[in-house]
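Session log. Operator J.P. requested a structure for one protein chain; no other inputs attached. Running the standard single-chain path with token output.
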Amino acid sequence: GLQVGGLGNLVGGRSKGVQIAGGLNHTMRSLEGLQLAGLANTVWDTLGGVQVAGGVNVVKRGMAGTQVSGAANITLGDLDGVQVSGGVNVTHGAVNTAQVAGAVNYARRVKGGQVAAGVNVSLGEVGGGQVGFGGNYARSVSGGQVSFGLNIVPDTVSGGQVGALNFARHAYGGQIGFINLSDTLSGGAVGLLTISLKGYHR
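Structure written below.
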């Protein structure tokens, strides 16, 4: 169905359809459909669909779809879709497509990619690369990292690193930066200072 409220809309159970509010949309259970709000959208279960807010979008469990916000998108489960925010994107589970943010992207792991004007952080692996103008961090990366600041990978990066300072335990694809640090390096390095503890490996 359709709900339109000047201040807000509240649904105590499951919902299918569209919620439009100048202030807040809130669904206590799962939602399949669209939430559009001037301030915030919250779903206290799973979401299958789209949230668009001038402020904040929150999904308490997993979601399949898209979140677009001016300030922050938060998903406490897995995200099978895309988060786009002028501020911060947070997914406490896995991101299966992408995160795009004006400031910060955070996820437990990312199967797709992360793009941020600030910093990208993944506690686990990133399957499609990271582009963060301030910096990038991931446990391991396939697809490379590009930054004007720091690129940090405690394990293995495949696809190379481009940044002011690059660090990876195992760097496959090379490193380009002012300072390049690695345990093992494959693909060469270009920079003012390159240190590879175990040397270059073809």
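Operator note: The radius of gyration is 20 Å.
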